[in-house]
Amino acid sequence: MNQKYTYILFYKPYNVLCQFTDESPHASNRKTLKDYINIANVYSVGRLDLDSEGLLLLTDNPRVKHRLCEPSFAHPRTYWSQVENIPTIEALKKLEQGIVIKRKKTKKAIATLLKIEPNIPPRNPPIRHRLKIPTAWIELTLTEGRNRQVKRMTAAVGNPTLRLIRVKIGINNKLELTLKGLSSGEWRHLTTHEQKIIEQLA
Question: Cα 29 to chain center, whole Å?
Fold first, then answer.
């Protein structure tokens, strides 16, 4: 009989640590996954920074976790990044072609300027607004997950990230996991169909 694994989609809020314990001196000032998810032995597949929000997949299936975190498999991840200033066409092209970060160029990406601001709840605390500096939203799809990659990429083209939300994770070219139906701080189990597809990775 095949072992039954657990798969969870979680909408991580701002200022939540992407693990279940926090041993740092700042532990009293921030929440962890334990404050939202009361299921044992599941771990996040990849990470989101403390100050990033959005889609997080958790599982107790080590093979699936390894496959999704292995860079060579290039699973796409889509982010909405609120940035300072209005990105130029040239800036978007640079993001797509790759940015050199720590002497290594990022892989090709898809970068789109969103014409309409995403329908998302305000962040708590809100981002810092400056009257003379406009903001815009970029949709950026990457196939790698280097440390603080989106923020470093947008900063390199003159558009520092103010707010970052992961909205989509691609699985095996057959499935896109999204935030649909989830509010910040909520989670759900994968459907039977989603679980069947994701287990094909293992």
Answer: 22
